[in-house]
Request: fold
Amino acid sequence: MVLTVAKLTLPLVFADTGTNAELRQAVARDLQMVFGHLDGYEVVSAGGVPPVMVKGHPITPTKLINFTGAGRYFPKVIDGEIGYVGNFDGREALLITDKVIAAYREAMERRRAHPAAYNEIGHFINDLNLLATKPINDTRQMFVLDPAMASASSQLEQINPQVFAQQFGGQQYRAPSLLEIVDGAQISDRYKGRLVAKLYAQTKDGLKDHMPPIIFDQGRWKLLIVFHPT
Reply:
């Protein structure tokens, strides 16, 4: 398993935390999706980071690679944990730390608990990407309106298929990382136990995360119109 970014390819080595093949493959696929679109990187000192135990051997990070480029968005839970490189079996490898593994293990547990939601998110993204040629007729069903945003109800009622396509079409959407599909309690206690996720849009300026969050509601993903406190 490798991560390839901007013509740099590094094998992945995992800390000794009992990972299985399913988890390792999920981590590899997700990291490639998160970072693979970036077009550059910079190498800096690892700064005295403690060793990572790999197959019973301590591997000391020798450098830190910061991936760069337009749309540098990735899950906050692994911010500061991805990019450490060390020498393993005679070659440089990207070290997947205990914290990263723990985050993905928790994400996989959520996926196993909510298979329908994870199966549907690809369909939702595909529907958004096809808006230019395949408008969505029942646009009101594309939204969940937070009670604190009740004043926006009349505005939503005015969004017909053409307006929806104009507002949300013309962009290429990307599914969130596994680590960004989380319990709704992270937004508000009223959404506890329901899955919410980030939605990314690819624009001419790169990958953007300016879209509303999405929520799995009544068997489908919808845009969650919610007030975000500053």
About this structure: The first strand starts at residue 2 and ends at 5. The mean pLDDT is 91. Residues 2-103 form one domain. The CA atoms of residues 9 and 211 lie 31 Å apart.
